[in-house]
């Protein structure tokens, strides 16, 4: 099963002992963040469970390509994101075709990005919202937009780390984040309105 | 005469400069505000922010809103712990 187990020395100077040590020291502390990321991507508990397991097993199998001293959390998030795209997005309950359309429309419409920032939402109204309402607004975004907000605002990655995790240039990180936030404001606005927080 | 006419207009101009009620480059400012809050602003963006932020009401409000949303996302959105059985499965598969 685990072919590399029999080898005493693998690439990058990883001995068997070191593999376990690095796995426990560098990877395991991020398991809660990884689980939450998986859940917010898949929006399904079973899929999130599988995705986290698959990611950690892959991380262990390919640990020799992890350079010690680099950002383990970003490395793990990148594997998880790739597994999500390759294995889960296809069978995801979320209609990805609609997602792409919405993403395309928003990307291509300059008008959209010029008008959405005027969303009439006050900071006080946002302060009134509870965590579930903020989470629901976030979950209502197309997955690509949801992802950049999770990475930046919930997990605290830098733009450079996000660019590596998502395999996109930093300029794209900036613009996608900007548009994601405009969309999020619209969703928050409708929550605030429905709760009567904005009057 | 000239002076008396000029004085109020200078004052008016000064008042206009102290507080702006509209922002002619708000779309740009929004990008700067977000970069500042993300701690990713370039030196030019930081300069723009320092020069404009304290005298532009739409930008001050936008800054408050963006900060509030960012803070809400990091502090209010619930983070669940990873279920113990997943942890156990991972550990047992790796040691198996």
TrEMBL record, chain A:
Record-annotated RNA polymerase sigma-70 region domain positions: 30-93
Alphabetical list of PANTHER family matching this protein: ECF RNA POLYMERASE SIGMA FACTOR SIGR, RNA POLYMERASE ECF-TYPE SIGMA FACTO
Protein name (database record): RNA polymerase subunit sigma
UniProt keyword annotation of Transcription present: yes
NCBIfam families recorded: sigma70-ECF (TIGR02937)
Family: Belongs to the sigma-70 factor family. ECF subfamily.
Keyword terms: Sigma factor, Transcription, Transcription regulation
InterPro entries documented for this protein: RNA_pol_sigma-70-like, RNA_pol_sigma-70_dom, RNA_pol_sigma70_r2, RNA_pol_sigma70_r4_t2, RNA_pol_sigma_r2, RNA_pol_sigma_r3/r4-like, WH-like_DNA-bd_sf
GO BP of this protein: DNA-templated transcription initiation
Every RNA polymerase sigma factor 70 region 4 type domain range: 133-182
Sample GO molecular function, one term: DNA binding
Entry superkingdom: Bacteria
């Amino acid at each position: 099963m685990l072919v590399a187990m029999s080898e005493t020395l693998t690439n990058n100077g990883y001995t068997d002992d070191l593999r376990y040590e690095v796995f426990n020291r560098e990877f395991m502390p991020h398991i809660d963040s990884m689980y939450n990321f998986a859940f917010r991507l898949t929006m399904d508990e079973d899929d999130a469970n599988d995705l986290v397991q698959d990611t950690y097993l892959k991380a262990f199998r390919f640990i020799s390509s992890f350079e010690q001293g680099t950002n383990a959390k970003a490395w793990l998030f990148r594997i998880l994101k790739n597994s999500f795209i390759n294995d889960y997005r296809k069978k995801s309950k979320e209609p990805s075709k609609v997602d792409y359309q919405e993403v395309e429309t928003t990307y291509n419409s300059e008008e959209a990005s010029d008008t959405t920032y005027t969303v009439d939402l006050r900071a006080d109204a946002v302060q009134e919202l509870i965590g579930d309402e903020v989470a629901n607004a976030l979950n209502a975004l197309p997955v690509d937009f949801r992802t950049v907000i999770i990475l930046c605002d919930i997990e605290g990655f830098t733009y450079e780390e996000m660019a590596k995790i998502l395999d996109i240039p930093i300029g794209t990180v900036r613009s996608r984040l900007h548009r994601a936030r405009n969309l999020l404001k619209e969703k928050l606005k409708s929550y605030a309105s429905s709760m009567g927080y904005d009057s | 005469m000239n002076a008396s006419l000029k004085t109020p207009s200078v004052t008016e101009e000064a008042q206009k400069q102290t507080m702006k009620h509209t922002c002619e480059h708000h779309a740009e400012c929004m990008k700067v505000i977000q970069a500042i809050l993300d701690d990713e602003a370039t030196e030019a963006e930081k300069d723009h922010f320092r020069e404009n932020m304290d005298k532009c009401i739409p930008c001050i409000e936008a800054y408050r809103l963006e900060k509030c949303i960012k803070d809400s996302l990091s502090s209010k959105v619930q983070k669940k712990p990873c279920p113990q059985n997943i942890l156990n499965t991972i550990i047992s598969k790796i040691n198996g």
